[in-house]
Structure formats: structure tokens, C-alpha cells
Design goal:
alpha+beta, 2 helices, three-stranded antiparallel β-sheet
Length: 95
């Protein structure tokens, strides 16, 4: 299985049409990699873009939660659940 493009992913602030999700580059002088183009800027497309942007965080948090549950590590599970809550908030646009 191939690895996905690492995050963080953001909605391209410079894109007008189509709405684009890009990988945020750690070097401010380098444009990030394109992840996907969604379409015109509508409320539903913006919600879809937020969900796509949150995908790396959601995956990482879910993997951490499962690992902590498998290990019965209660303290780490609380931290993993906080990360999952943050990722869900990001996906919903409530941040």
C-alpha cells in the first residue's frame, strides 16, 4: 500500500476556481503539492474541502486511539481522544 501525501493540508487561499486543497509546505518560499480540486466555491464544496483537509489528522488520531485501546493505555487514550476531537472540529469547520 502506498503512503498518502503527508499533511498538513489546507484550502489554497489563492485559488478562486476551482477550489483546491493543497499540502502546506514547510518552506514558505515553495508552493505545496496539489491534493485535489473540488469545483466552484459553494458552502457544500467548502465543507467537503475542510473534511479532505482534516483527513491526515483524522487518520492519525484514529490510529492512535486504536493503538492505545489495544495496549489498554488509559492516559495515552485520553490524549489520543483529544487529538481526535481536534481533528473532528477541524473537519467540521468549528475551529
Amino acid at each position: 500500500m502506498n503512503a498518502h501525501t503527508p499533511g498538513p493540508w489546507i484550502i489554497d487561499p489563492d485559488a478562486t476556481l476551482p477550489l483546491a486543497v493543497i499540502r502546506l509546505s514547510s518552506d514558505e518560499n515553495v508552493d505545496g503539492d496539489g491534493i485535489c480540486e473540488i469545483g466552484e466555491r459553494t458552502p457544500q464544496n467548502e465543507a467537503d474541502a475542510r473534511l479532505i483537509c482534516a483527513a491526515p489528522d483524522l487518520l492519525a488520531a484514529a490510529v492512535d486511539c486504536i493503538s492505545c485501546a489495544d495496549a489498554a493505555d488509559y492516559d495515552s487514550m485520553l490524549n489520543a481522544l483529544d487529538a481526535l476531537r481536534d481533528a473532528i472540529t477541524k473537519a467540521k469547520g468549528d475551529a
